Amino acid sequence: xxxxxxxxxxxxxxxxxxxxxxxxxxxxxxxxxxxxxxxxxxxxxxxxxxxxxxxxxxxxxxxxxxxxxxxxxxxxxxxxxxxxxxxxxxxxxxxxxxxxxxxxxxxxxxxxxxxxxxxxxxxxxxxxxxxxxxxxxxxxxxxxxxxxxxxxxxxxxxxxxxxxxxxxxxxxxxxxxxxxxxxxxxxxxxxxxxxxxxxxxxxxxxxxxxxxxxxxxxxxxxxxxxxxxxxxxxxxxxxxxxxxxxxxxxxxxxxxxxxxxxxxxxxxxxxxxxxxxxxxxxxxxxxxxxxxxxxxxxxxxxxxxxxxxxxxxxxxxxxxxxx
Length: 323
Description:
Trna Endonuclease, Chain: A, domain 1; 8-stranded mixed beta sheet; elongated; EC 3.1.21.-; 5-methylcytosine-specific restriction protein A; hydrolase activity; SRA_ScoMcrA
């Protein structure tokens, strides 16, 4: 690999020193040791298949920041027009015959790019002797020809499994090196100076959503509430759903949105109605959290569905309960 691409010999993510490439190495056996599984998802959409790949970092929370997160950031920004790099994915395929170093043969499965709609997700994992930690799971799309073998597929869930995870797993975005300052960005307006990463069609709304979620979580914790999220693995699929905040103190399931538009109100209703079926104890209160008060018609829509409204105000939050 070093001779062909100029990449190093260690690590799962290896940016080339001499060519515009990033080499990504998958080892199905070692992944399970650290509490995750890389591979093809069973489900496809109109854009085709997805290959999930867990970011680098086997201890503590994974990150995009600093030296520890530099290789994850390299993948995130691989399509930067000024210095674009191709993502090449390899899968370990047994040891090199006669090798004393434990070197493994690599099977090439293709060139990839990050998913446009959702370049990565955040999940919880439990590695060897590790407490709960956050991991980055990149969503890779094939670019051109690729190899898709059954042994490279993520295992389908045998039954629907619901488990509690850290509330921070609900984050749609982690801190990123080029993340724009929300204080300097006007709603609905794109500034020429805003940094762009490989795939972020609605990054500003997503950042506002994450910021609102973080602020509200801190507020609930300050009140002494027990707050977490749920991760839901759907039977016979590789689909993993992650709720927004769940307040165990008030038995309340939240959907947090980055805007107060009709589309976002509809999205909140759909999300809550989908997830509530799997929550135990059953019949939690349903609440939608927005950055500002939606118009009256949308408030009525929420209340018709039995969903409380909470929105951010200058001094905190206002709740309009469903009647």
